[in-house]
Amino acid sequence: MRILVAPDSFGGTLSAVQAAEAIAEGWIRSAPADQILTRPLSDGGPGFVHVLDSVLDGRLLPVQVPDPLGRMVPATVLRVGATAYVESAQAAGLHLLGPADRDPLRTTSYGVGVMLAAAVETGARRAVVGLGGSGTNDAGAGMLAALGVLPLDAAGAALPYGGAALLGLDRMEGAPRLRGIDLIAASDVDNPLVGEQGASAVFGPQKGASPDDVALLDTALARWARVAERDLPGAPVGLAGLPGGGAAGGMGAALLALGGGRRSGIDLVREAVGLDAAVDGADLVLTGEGSFDSQSLRGKVAAGVARVAADRGRDCLVLAGQVTLGEPELAGLPAVGVRAAYSVAEHAGSVRAAMSDPAERLAALAADVAAEWSHRR
Q1: Nearest Cα to 120, choosing from 147, 150, 139?
Q2: What angle, 0 to 180 degrees and rounded to 10, lies between the N-to-C axes of helices 16-30 and 358-373?
Q3: If you count Cβ atoms within 10 Å of the first and of the last residue's Cβ in the chain, which end, N or C, has fewer?
């Protein structure tokens, strides 16, 4: 059989490239005669630039940026022709924070603004900002500050960094130093900035927010949206409720407020890596990610790959670190193009066991899945 392996990264344990290699290696253990083609993917989150750099003829530009707590970390901007690609997770990623450091009340997206400024300085005419995997919840206020748009309180003092400080936001001053560059937010998260499906309520808890923190942050981001609509000339009406505004702790809304557009991250990468042609040449498609959950079905990599496979009449299997879907969602997987979903944690016996050697555990799962599926046509 011809097997296409097209996963996302696995939640800070394996990059998309490493995950693809592990799945391919495991599959061959049980089905050595099968032909394996790997196409690592990203939806805009961690690994976005790495995946694009592996297939596009561009150059990587190193830049030092502050992480969510202001500590300097290395990052890269990918320049391809007139387009610069920026991966927000390199500066604002949750993976940069230890469990004790996760505090969306004070973490900042400032480093993403530094990366975007670096992209502008290269002379690029278009910047595509991959959104996902963030450890921040400040509506991109830090990013805007790095670009020259300062959040001020009623006394005219600059606000501290972090989402909680936005409760005291009175106005924004300054013009973004973008030199006319076109902005694109690359993300498959369609959550709005605020509300029950907003950035704080849905993603805040995994970043360290308590229930009280979520309520505070939601109020703060709603205030930010009202001020942004008033003070930023490119901000659209109804900013707080626009689809995708909640991506990366609200950085999606900040890019929209700057007049930016929105593009599906998986569709953008899909075109770059030639996913459609690869699916056409496959008998079976494998995808995967760290956690296959209800958010996955709202447009992340696994759902995007399954959609492409279903359109071409190919079976698609998901191999994930964990599968946390409820029974109704599991029963509905064939409707979204997924024939079956397999959990590394369940296969290994526990999450701890799965994390002890993630590449080998994923390979072992792939070997067992191959034993089940390789003979099928």
Answers
A1: 147
A2: 40
A3: C
